[in-house]
Amino acid sequence: MTARQATRVPTRRNVELALLLLVILVLFVFQTAVEIALLGELTQTAFWLVGLMGAAMLVAHVLVRIFAPYADPVLLPCGAMLTGIGVVFIRRLDMSAVVFSEEAQALVQVYPTVEDRAALGLFDDPGGRQLMYLFAAVAVFAAFLWLVRDHRNLSRYPFILGLTGILMAASPAIIGQEINGSKLWIDLGFASVQPSEFAKLLLLIFFAYYLVRKREVLSLASRKFLGIPFPRAKDLIPVLVVWLVSLLIMIGIRDLGTSLLFFGLFVAMLYIATERISWIIIGLSLFTGGVLLIYPFFSHLQLRVSIWLDPFADPNGDGRQLVQSLIGLGSGGLFGAGPGAGQPQATNPAANSDFILSGLGEELGLFGLTAILMVYLLLVARGMRAGLGVRDSFGKLVAGGLAFSVGFQLFVVLGGVTKLIPLTGQTAPYMAAGGSSLLANWVLLAMLVRLSDAGRRPQAAPAGPIKIAPPPAPVDDSPTQIVSVPQLAKEPGTGSDPGSDGPPTDPYRTSPSTTPEVKP
Amino acid sequence: MNAPLRRVTIVVIVLFSLLFLNLNWVQFAEHDFYQNNAYNDRVTIAEYSRQRGSIVAGSETLADSVPTEDGDEYKYRRQYPLNEPFAHLTGYQSLVYGDSGLEQTENQILSGEDPRLFVDRLSELFTGTEVAGGNVVLSIEPEIQLAAWEAITGVSEGQVGAAVVLDPRSGRVLAQVSAPSYDPNPLASHDNQESSEAWTAYTSDPSNPMLDRSTRELYPPGSTMKVVVAAAALAAGMTPETEISSGNSYTPPNAGTTITNSENQCPEDELTLQEALTRSCNTSFAKLCVEELGPEPIAEMAEALGFGQQLTTPLGVEASQWGDLSDPAFLAQACIGQHEVKLTVMQDAMLSAAVANGGSLMSPQLIREIQAPNQTTLEFGPEDELSNPFSADVAADLRKMMENVVSASNGTGANARIEGFTVGGKTGTAQHGVDENGNDLPEHGWFTGYAFNGDGEPVVAVSVFLAAAGDGGSGEATRIAGELMRLALE
């Protein structure tokens, strides 16, 4: 393959910069279309809104340059794109929001005239708050990269993290508020927090720590059934514990989605650690069995399932949101009503959280929603790639778990609002209104950035200028990033990139590898 | 651990593929189902957020959309400035009760969804300026319409009636009035309470004001049916001078009732066809049908004149019917416009229009023009010949006979005379059942006729119908018809 030794590993930061500028351009176009549809003109707010978001993204980019210079250049733009679309769309929903008026005994618009909408402040309403959460998210992103220079440090206090994770996951069951039949939130007085979002990350780290240590044991097979080797009975105990806890959480917070997410994440990581398909079979059977077991005693779950089976049975009551979500998506068709031209507030009041993807599907159509789906898939694939690239088992498990959790959560959310599976209280990662979710997902992004940096960074030069290049990677670990980077790095105006002031780069060089041929 | 990582990636891709396939199902395959779903408010909201086009007649606006006050969920409200006299034409656009009338049939153009307005909508996308819907210009002449409304409602308190005025040369409808009527404005209110109160009031009113009596209801035509019989007789080879059997009473075979004349005005044993029509001799026409013509020529002529056919003007016109002619007793009654013969007021006007236009019957048409929002013409209303029921010679003979009805000293249509113009027509008086005591209900009064202008052009055909107007009803209808024709001649 590529046998040439290069003297430098490209950091590919300029690719990230270019992608971020593209993201900012897309967001500006999106905001412009929204304003023209809803205000009839492009206002200064569009420049401020996209400018501030762009500034935050560029700050994040600079911080990646400093703290994780070898990170995958696609991760941050994916997260930024999805978050930015969320901010713009939540703000757009604010403009056409409706409230129930006691006087009129009907839903009335909060901002009935164009002037009212145009006067909507940059930091007003959920859209304005989401913009502030974006700043906070970038701060958390930066703090993580600054504090956690080596992802292996995360495995130092596994039991503290694990215990905190379980407590956080279970906390809403005890002190949570009930919203839409589920108890996912804790009211802290000044803000509502959705602790399961953070609990997911903590538990994920704990799972990774635990599985790395137990993978040998868990991989042992005792007997075969239908040709598939199954584990020993006593090794089932930890799995049963997680299963029981996730069922208890489901009963406690009355949300199938969170439970499904936790358990699915655990099973996926178990499989990645042991490579035993039997664990997936055991996991799925346990979960299905558990759900069937508690189903008769769990009216909220029954309701969710009956709505899923026939949303039109009660189209103005229990089924209303799903009916309106489907009608919105269906009305959007292939091309959508256009940004700002749909009626996504019909799924009120969850239009900006659980049902934000229906709203986007209504206005951007099948094509637009598929594009968004592709951005998510890109993020997942790049996360998985970080797992392939990183050298230690713990890192691989964390990366795989993080990437899977994003993909799986999106499946649960979008599957729910499109009637593929029953609705749950989960929200679309990065997009849905809500600080907890956004902050947690940017921590997740920071972890993937850290892991991808660890995977690509030359081992001889953990920081600072690179002297020795690692050897080429096996080609199957570096499928896509070969040609375009050096060309981009040579473009004028990118000279400040610390990776671009060296000798000419070799366009055919591959990325660094997990299996170095030459030890430094 | 790389192999399972890749496999998990594939699992995620499979999950995303399921999402994608399902999205295709919801957004593409089921698009129409959801778009037209009963629980989909989006279409309505979108409809009300664009300025709907106007319905216009002459210099009058019959329906237009005005911006709502702040806080209304919908941006525009529909209003009907001339309300009642035009309500059956415009119909209403209601959030709760849907659309009716031209608001319904012309919705595509009014709402701006018409493909011909696609370019306007496209420019809207780029310029951001909101494009209104297209306009519908009617052939209605508001002056005649209002005069007809005033005349019918002026006959008596709560008078039920209808009038249709046509241009025989083009089929254009110059007036189409139905009384009683209703005010469509409250139905178009965005206040659901107001619209539901109005709806309840209209639908529970025993006089049924929302029924369009000019086109949607069938009535026995009485002696105006004799125009059809005369046409059939002439087409069968008779002339206005052909002597036909007459007398003041006639009992058809198998019939239990004897046919008489209203004022014993036809005592002679034989009269010419023209004289029989002029005096409106029931006996002569009953005998003519039973003894000379038979059922087929009557049915064929009626069909050629538009009976049995639903029309679209583009408002719907019910199919007029000749009913069962198989028995001589039925046939005799049918030929004097009783028994099962029933027609719309529109059909009645079409009889005269066919005669005046030399045997060429034009399809009635309400639309003069379809306009883009900027008032450029997209399309003119069609001018199509519906049928050719009889030859120009027969038409000329019929004209001679019908003009005699108006001009002769003993003619029944004298009330329709217009100084200096040629007017032809036929009156009608129709029985329509008995009340609970077995007494005959007051009879319907009819007049169908036409007038030629100074250049010899047949410019107007008319039918006026006064329900249960009793004695003098047809005379009153004839007077009103004369008045409307005079307006059309001006």
Commentary on this structure:
The complex is a heterodimer of chains A (520) and B (490). Helices cover 59% and strands 6% of the residues of chain A. In chain A, a hairpin with a 2-residue loop joins strand 6 and strand 7 (228-231). Chain A has helices at 13-39, 44-67, 75-95, 114-118, 125-147, 158-175, 195-219, 236-253, 256-274, 277-294, 299-309, 320-332, 356-389, 393-417, 435-456, 484-489; strands at residues 98-101, 106-109, 176-179, 182-187, 192-193, 221-225, 228-231. Chain A is globular. Chain A has a domain at 155-297. The longest helix of chain A is centred in the last third of the chain and has 34 residues, at 356-389. In chain A, the strands form three sheets. Chain A has a three-stranded antiparallel β-sheet with strand order 3-4-5. Chain A contains 16 helices and seven strands. In chain B, 37% of the residues lie in helices and 19% in strands. Chain B is built from 17 helices and 21 strands. In chain B, a hairpin with a 3-residue loop joins strand 13 (311-312) and strand 14. Chain B has 490 residues and is of the alpha+beta class. Chain B has helices spanning 2-29, 31-35, 42-49, 87-90, 101-105, 107-111, 118-127, 142-155, 192-204, 226-235, 273-279, 282-293, 295-304, 328-334, 345-356, 392-407, 473-489; strands at 55-57, 60-67, 76-79, 93-94, 98-99, 135-138, 161-166, 173-179, 243-245, 249-250, 259-260, 270-272, 311-312, 316-317, 361-362, 367-371, 377-380, 385-387, 422-430, 444-452, 458-466. In chain B, strands 3-2-1-6-16-17 form a six-stranded mixed β-sheet, with no helix packed on it. Chain B has a domain at 222-366 and 384-489: DD-peptidase/beta-lactamase superfamily (Beta-lactamase, 3-Layer(aba) Sandwich), CATH 3.40.710.10. In chain B, helix 8 packs antiparallel against helix 17 (473-489) and helix 12 (282-293) packs across helix 14 (328-334). The chains are: A mainly alpha (520), B alpha+beta (490). At the A-B interface, strand 2, helix 9, helix 12, helix 13 and helix 14 of A face helix 1, helix 2 and helix 3 of B.
